[in-house]
Design a protein that fits this description.
Helices cover about 65% and strands about 0% of the residues. By secondary structure, the chain is mainly alpha-helical. The longest helix has 23 residues. About 0% of the residues are buried.
Length: about 50
């Protein structure tokens, strides 16, 4: 349901709304998730050689 709402809003932006129609913008939550994933990968990369 949330995915359907996101897809509908992504492909049919409101005309005249500021900040819309310029492509997807990165949200803070998305940036935080990417940073957390990167830290997890780095931690795993250091942990694997140590055993």
């Amino acid at each position: 349901m949330i995915l359907r709402h996101r897809l509908r809003n992504a492909f049919h932006p409101c005309p005249g709304a500021p900040g819309r129609g310029n492509g997807p913008t990165a949200r803070a939550s998305d940036i935080i998730l990417v940073i957390m994933t990167g830290l997890l990968v780095i931690a795993a990369a250091f942990k694997i050689p140590q055993g």
